[in-house]
Design brief:
5-stranded mixed barrel, about 35% helix, 4 helices, about 250 residues, elongated, alpha+beta
Length: about 250
Amino acid sequence: MTDPGTGSGGKAGFVVLTVLTAVALAVLLALGSWQMSRLAWKEDLIARVEERINAAPGPLPAPDTWSTLTDEAVEYRPVSFTATYDNAREVHVFIALAQPKGKLGGQGYFVMVPATLEDGRIVFVNRGFVPLDRKDASTRPEGRLDGPRTINGLMRPAEAASWISPADDIAKNVWFVRDPRKMAVAVGLDPTRVAPFTVDAAAGETPGGLPQGGETVVAFTNNHLGYAITWFGLAASLATIWAMLAWKRRR
């Protein structure tokens, strides 16, 4: 009777096991390597963003380039420009501000206000955070800014709704996604004249403190090293198991 561990049947089975192990190891090592490359990319991105947000502000991109701007070119770019707020057309974007830079945080709204440039084009500016009970502009009249203003802030790309995004309640003026073109339509503006990006106003530009500016959320999820360790650890475990089986079979 043939020993399944040493006979031809056992040998064939071990060969199949070895091939499958090699394939699985290749996949696990490839996944670990991919996560390491993603880690390098993410660390480079974080470094570039840190450098960018601390740079001196420049002018807004020329309107004839707006249609070709990429998210990477826009994100956290410091700008300074002159525009006039259209205070009657506030848009309120719900936010749970977990780590406020100012005095106020928690649940509330980012106050998005269309700002008209000298050539008539419009940029939606996130003037900052207000608590739930200060949503109505009449509760913070000291924060109203009239006439041409110099606005300093960070550019942000337009947001797109995901499958987990709640639906915007346009009737109640409660939004969850910052889409400037959609906001323009909701408040009666020509979306073709609205910039495809928004600007988060810097801190300290509002009399009375509200809206509370300078609340740009700069956060990056960076779990790539942990994922890489997991994939490489699984590969090491699989190789160890195969080695133990091979050693046992030789005995």
